[in-house]
Amino acid sequence: MRSEESPRAPRAPSRRSAAAGGGSAASAAALVLASGFGASGCGLGVSGLGAAAGDASVDVAADVDEGPDGAVGPQDGEAPGDEDGSTQAESGPPAGPMTMASPGEVTQASGLAQQTHLVYATGAARWWLFWFDASQPTQLQASSSPDFATWTPATPLVLPGSHANQGGDLSVAYASIAGVDVVHVAMGLHFTAANDRRIVHVRATLSGGAILYGSPQQLAMVSDPNLVDPDGTAVLVGPDDHVRDATGWANYLGTGNEVAWASTAADLGASWDGNFGLQQNIATASNTVNARVFAVVPPGGTVLALWELADAEPDPTNVAWSQLGTTGWSNAANVFSGKSQSANDWDVATVGAGDVRVARRGLDGSFDHVRFDGQGWTTLQAPPSDPGLAESGVVVLANAPHVAVFAIGSDPASSVRQIVWDGTQWGSWSTLEGSTATRRALAGCDAPGHTALLWTETGSAGTSIVGMPVAF
Fold first, then answer.
1. Residue 293 and residue 282 in contact, taking contact as beta carbons nearer than 8 Å
2. 401 upstream amide cis, omega within 30 of 0
3. For strand 136-145 and strand 152-158, is the pairing parallel, antiparallel, or unpaired?
4. Dist CA 393 CA 467 (whole Å)
5. What is the pTM of this model?
6. Pairing mode, if any, of strands 367-372 and 377-379?
7. Cβ distance 257 to 248 under 8 Å?
8. pLDDT mean values, one per 10 residues, the chain (472 residues)
């Protein structure tokens, strides 16, 4: 669960380049959230995944100058340039959007609404961003920030295949396990043979501004020419510190379905044996599933798998779900009544005990809002209709009893829009970021006291991953 923050007075927002630290003003308002572990957020990893103990690892530190004593900074979470050890984080995160990275022409570089590319490491007291760069097709990029304003790149991880400019084939789960900051990364990679696609998993530990990767390991390989990108890869570290991956790139009555793996042992923080069990076949689909996620139902920690129904391309009519029990996954069923929607315009958040929420937007602009209590689904009041940009992502975050829905508008400015459920009813839609730009791939991050949105934005300076903390 995320802890609540005290409300902050809105400040005049600004956007700065991650490299230069300067930029133009952008209109935005501080908002909501600092709460529960939502499925789209950086706090979803109720724990993490990793490479086997003894695997060859790559020690990846921030790209900074080495001091005369051989020490490499920043050390212990210091921000670069803060010689007295202070950081910009002391003055609080920026209220407005910040440029976090420049990925080039990567599709959905910031991830799908259900995925996580941004996490907050509690031990290191740093944000970490993971992304693909179009100029480096066989690398995983990462950078960190103590304050969300200054982002320091880490040496990238060399991948065994190409990311093929598909940001929707990457997701990250974070967990603090026995005092160790751990991330598990699931990726869909392309190889040189025609239609050769493979699911690859890698674990890493974080320490200050340094990241230590384990060896990437392959879970599945397919060569189906009918697959449609992205895979919408999902990853979870559950309450028991076991790791789960979900994908459609697996041989299961054809490919493009809903398939999962679970680690055979828990991540211990200091080590993890790196082993996964057998492939778990959850459900078949008529077409390629392009968006999926795991959710956890407290207090018992029941795991749910959810995915876009893929009954029609490119727009399905529902979100499907299955619940993990003692004998395996339950039969797949639909969450909502049938209605055409975009594959990426839905999301999940955990509000509290017996309270998991799912919201979606249909192609007609209308919304649906439901709750899962561990036994079944209840239809709740839906947010009022608001014109949105189809397939740009609908993000749901929670701060009990509040639930917030974020979307990109269909207006000329591609505004980032928001609405909040106060526990009883919805408020009104308002604009969180309204400066004119081309925005897409809205995603979210929620961790205790650290909640943020990010999106892919194209403007006069090119394509960037842009993000901003949101709080109430």
1. no
2. yes
3. antiparallel
4. 15
5. 0.84
6. antiparallel
7. yes
8. 30 32 32 37 41 34 32 34 36 80 97 98 96 98 96 97 98 98 98 96 96 97 95 97 97 94 98 97 97 96 97 97 96 97 97 96 97 96 96 94 96 97 96 95 87 92 93 68
